[in-house]
Structures are given as C-alpha cells and as structure tokens.
Amino acid sequence: MVSFSCNNCGDVLKKNQVNNHMWRCGGTVSCLDCLTTFSGNGYSAHNTCISEEQKYQGALYRGPKKARLTGLLGQQNQQRNQQQNGGAQQQPAATQQNITQEAPQEEKKDESKAKEAEEESQKKRKRNEEKEEKKKERKKESKKRKIEEEKESDDEKKKSKKEKKEEEKKETEEALIKKFLEQLPWEETIKEVLKKDDKKKMKKKKLRKKVVSTLLTHKIQEQLEAHFTAQAKEGTFKHFIKS
C-alpha cells in the first residue's frame, strides 16, 4: 500500500489517514515512492506505485512503456502542482505589491480631500468675514442715518420754536396795532371833516383821504405826545432824559 507525506507539516500518512489530515492541516500530499504531489482528492486514485526495481534502480530503470508514460504523467502533474503552489505562494507577494502601490494613491487621495476641505473651510471663513463686514457697514450706516435724523429733528424743532416765536410776536404787534387803531377818534374826526367842508356826506375815497390826513397831522400826534409824557412820568425813559 502506498504512503504519503504532508507537504505542509511533513507527517507520513497512510492512505486511509490522508482525508482527515487534509481537512485538519490543508495543503497537498506527495507519494513517498514516486514523489507525485496530489491536491484535493487526487490521492485516492493512486493505488499502486513504482516497483522494487524502479525504486532501487532509480534513474537507470526504464521499465515498460506504460510505466514510463505513467511516470511522465506523474512528473508533469508534480510540475503543474508545484507551479500552482508557487503561484499561490507568490500571490501574497503580488497582493503586497498591489497594496504597496495603492498606498501612495490612497495617501494622495487623502491629501487631496484634506486640501479640498481646507479650501472649503477658508472659503466659508471668508464668506463669514464678508457677512460680518457688511453687517458692520449696515450698522454704521444706520447709526449715521439716525444721528442725521435726530439732527434734522432738532433743527426742525428749533425752526418750529423760532417760527412760533416770530408768529407770536407778529400776532402781538398786529393786536397792538389793531388796539391802537380802534382807540383812534374815528367818528369825531369824520364829523370834524364834514363840518369843515359844510357837508353831511362825502364820497368814501375822498372822506378816507381827509380823515387819515387829519388823524396823522393832529390826532395821532396828540396821542403820541400824551403817551410819551405818561411814560416819562413813570420813569420809563429816565435814562434818556436830561435833568
């Protein structure tokens, strides 16, 4: 009966032990006689192996044609399995190489993302600064406008007070003039003018002219003189009058 060697741990196994061992250890097994490597369940078809002559003659043994073909196929299978195993062993190196190649690319991506995030942060900060600047400008303009409005309001108040004062003064003057005119001897002067012309009536325009002229020349002069004398007696003009 053929025996096998585990290519993973090196244990020597009988054929009925290979299945359980491969489940536990994995990998491949090789025939101890012909050194053919088997993977999976390929070992189960390997029931017979080299003869005693082939085993001890080694490279000098030629054997029958069928045996040579079997040996050749075994060598080819062994080479193919070795190539597969070699590819499997080289795969981690290739994977490591891919990882090594991908690492700088990932770093570049991370750097690019960080740069974009920084640029976006700067843009956002700039927008916020512009908003704050505009807000300050609006506040400044509002304060300036308020000061101007208050100034205009004060000017309006001053103007209003001045106008009111002038209006009151004007009303006072008009009231005084009206009172003065009402106190003039209108009827007495009219009768005097008509009597002087020996008439009972006269046209309005002519009568007005004669009455005003009489008042200005005589009556008002008398009243003004009387008013001045009264004020002088009260001492109103004492600092203007020589003793």
UniProtKB/TrEMBL annotation:
PROSITE patterns for this protein: ZF_C2HC_LYAR
Keywords tagged on the record: Metal-binding, Nucleus, Repeat, Zinc, Zinc-finger
Subcellular location: Nucleus
GO cellular component: nucleolus
Low complexity bias spans: 77-101
Compositionally biased region (Basic residues): 136-145
Main subcellular location: nucleus
Pfam families listed in its UniProt record: zf-LYAR
GO terms, molecular function: DNA binding; zinc ion binding
UniProt-listed GO biological process terms: negative regulation of transcription by RNA polymerase II; rRNA processing
Domain Zinc finger C2H2 LYAR-type: 29-56
Domain of life of the native organism: Eukaryota
Disordered, as annotated region: 77-173
Basic and acidic residues: compositionally biased ranges: 105-135, 146-173
Protein name: LYAR-type C2HC zinc finger protein
Organism: Acanthamoeba castellanii (strain ATCC 30010 / Neff)
